[in-house]
Amino acid sequence: GEDLRCLVKEQGPQPEKDVAFWALQLLSALEYLHGQNPPVLHRDFSPDNIMLKESGEICIIDFGAANHFVGTATGTMIGKQCYIAPEQLR
Q1: 69 SS3 class
Q2: Measured between alpha carbons, how far is 79 from 88 in angstroms, rounded to an integer?
Q3: Which is nearest to 2 in space by CA: 46, 48, 65, 42?
């Protein structure tokens, strides 16, 4: 497949119906990850780490920064600043 950053760079903005389809798939994947015990946080969720398979389905890759959520964790910020959740920046 191809990552979404490359896809948009090469082909420009994508049709709204395709983006909505991908968004639903991503939400389902995140719901699954966050529903684990303990929850799994990707920590680098960006277009670079979202692949579009030839079938048209989305796949999340690069779990190198992923971590189990620990409520008291502090430390180094991981991920791309422009895609980090506001609560992580705080």
Answers
A1: coil
A2: 10
A3: 48
Contacts of 56 (CB under 8 A, 6+ apart): 18, 21
Task: Look up 3 and say whether it is catalytic.
Answer: no
Does the pTM of the predicted model rise above 0.70? yes
In 10 A of CB 5, how many CB atoms? 13
* Reduced DSSP (H G I as helix, E B as strand, rest coil) percent helix, strand, coil of the chain, to 5: 40, 15, 45
Annotated active-site residue in 18, 44, 48, 62: 62
pLDDT tens, residue by residue, 70-80: 555 555 555 56
- What the block records as the tokens of 7 is 């896809």
Strands (E), 46-85: 50-52, 58-60, 67-68
Amino acid at residue number 49:
N
